[in-house]
Amino acid sequence: MAAIIDSVLLTLIEKICVIVVAAYLITRTRSFSEILDGRLTAKNQAVMVLIFGAFSVFGTVSGVEVFGVIANVRDLGPVIGGLVGGPVVGLGASLIGGGYRFLQGGFTGLACSIATILAGSLAGLVYILNRRRFVGVVGAVILSVLFESLHMLLVLLIAEPWQEALIVVRGTAAPMIASNSVGAFIFAMMITNLIRERETAEERDKYFLELEKKKMELNIAREIQQSFLPDTVPQLKGFDLAAASHPAKEVGGDFYDFIPQSDGKMGLVIADVSGKSVPAALFMVLSRATVKASAAGDKTAEEVAKSANDLIAADAKSGMFVTLFYAILDQETRTLRYVNAGHNPPLVLNGKTGDLTLLKTRGIAMGVMEDAEMEEREIELAEGDVVVFYTDGVTEAVDDGLDQFGAERLFETVKKNCHLSAADLVKEITGAVLAFSKGEPQFDDITLMVLKGGKME
Amino acid sequence: MKRMEGLIDGGCRKIVANFSGVDYISSSGLRVMLASLKRLRKAGGDLKLARLHPYVRETFEIAGFTQLFEIYDREEEALGEFGRQDLPSR
């Protein structure tokens, strides 16, 4: 007796290998994937009914005969179908499997087919109760054991004669419960793995998509910023002018501009917009256009700054602001009249004495508040005097130890190289900043403008 | 930034920001403070700053923000200022 049960178990385990392959193939079908995503379309359900129904029939056919009764995995297909695809799939597949079993006849025929249909339907119900999700490995195995026990109970209750049914149940109960729950275990493992795999893939795709989007945004921001910087530097009488901007990886919205005025005057702008990337680039475009428009007509630096500030403040949302230095250079009188709206004070190196002055005035970053006071001041520029306008990307450039380039290093670099032309001085300072940061990714744009007093004409 | 927003969303109207643990503030940081200040003042509240590191204070100064924010050497002073303002309304 024990030997017979063992051989039955062994044969059933052999069948399990077939189940593994079947489970693999079934779980890789498109309909199965879509069912896992909750897309229970008529087509997907029909495909699953057919597949799990066929699998149920296979379970019957591949069964092992014990005392004239077939121990089998007929219930496995409908149960898994129901647990994954709901009542329609569970019931449909079990009707196919159970119907086929009924046609096979035998004194347990009716009981066995009813048991299969009941198992498939109950599995579908579990799916609904579990909020339309797969119950997981443990759940599937426990349910399999319960369904097979129910199966055995039904055979005892329905099959006649009762004594023969008892013999059948005694012989097949253990192998059937074991094989069906092992089968359920295999299916459930594959299904949960598949679900996890899909979730990971989804997360990964989302991450890559975000990364792509970010990259694209950075490129757009850089293009906006670069396309709104002047292409050329104007030629001045008795002055040498140069400027350059190195956008950071995450564009910061720095800009500079030259606004020609009448009577040999030239408006000079350097500015740093708060924020990063596309919002900063767009705010830069707005600020630049506003300053340009405000500078039209022969206005003083103070008037330009006040009108630009009022316009920007009216538009600035969520605390956006721009620190901006505006100066009007008079090439005839060699004076620079300037307004500092919260910008890093440009430094002036006296060509004769080597003294440094910072161009500070009482002002506030533009966009912060309307009707802000903007104090205007004036300096005279002699031959050899150097004015260095810069943004905080220069002084706040960091090295690998997160030390900042700082104002002191900037002063030293300017002092040491004050004999150079404006263009070379811009290159020299930029080079010094980049050498200092040794390829560390910079947080902010590095923007410089140098104005140097030349020979009086 | 999220924390400031969270505080204001949660109904905080009078905030003292103690900067003793901050030795650097970027322009993005200034923006957060400015946006918070604007929101709070609009809602009848205020944001006061205390214990600014010299370098941080300089950053606020350069941007002209010292005209905008009330800045105190000690947190208690800022809190006391809020308390004093509250008295008449009690």
Automatic annotation (TrEMBL), chain A:
Keyword Ligase set for record: no
Domain of life, source organism: Archaea
Location within or outside the cell: Cell membrane
GO cellular-component term (any): plasma membrane
UniProt cross-references to InterPro entries, sorted A to Z: Bact_Sigma-Reg (IPR052016), PPM-type-like_dom_sf (IPR036457), PPM-type_phosphatase-like_dom (IPR001932), Sig_transdc_His_kinase_LytS_TM (IPR011620)
Entry-linked SMART domains: PP2C_SIG
Keyword tags: Cell membrane, Hydrolase, Membrane, Transmembrane, Transmembrane helix
Membrane topology listed for this record: Multi-pass membrane protein
Domain PPM-type phosphatase as annotated: residue spans: 236-453
Primary location class: membrane
Annotated transmembrane regions: 7-26, 46-67, 79-100, 106-127, 134-159, 165-188
Molecular-function GO term, any one: phosphorelay sensor kinase activity
Biological process terms in GO annotation: cell wall organization
Keyword RNA-binding: no
Name under which the protein is recorded: Conserved hypothetical membrane protein, SpoIIE and 5TMR of 5TMR-LYT family
Source organism (scientific name): Methanothrix harundinacea
UniProtKB/TrEMBL annotation, chain B:
Signal peptide annotation: none
UniProt record similarity statement: Belongs to the anti-sigma-factor antagonist family.
Name this protein carries in UniProt: Putative anti-sigma factor antagonist
One protein family per Pfam: STAS
PANTHER family for this protein: ANTI-SIGMA FACTOR ANTAGONIST TM_1081-RELATED, ANTI-SIGMA FACTOR ANTAGONIST TM_1081-RELATED-RELATED
Molecular functions (GO terms): anti-sigma factor antagonist activity
InterPro entries for the chain: Anti-sigma_ant, STAS_dom, STAS_dom_sf
Domain STAS residue range list: 1-82
Top-level taxon of origin: Archaea
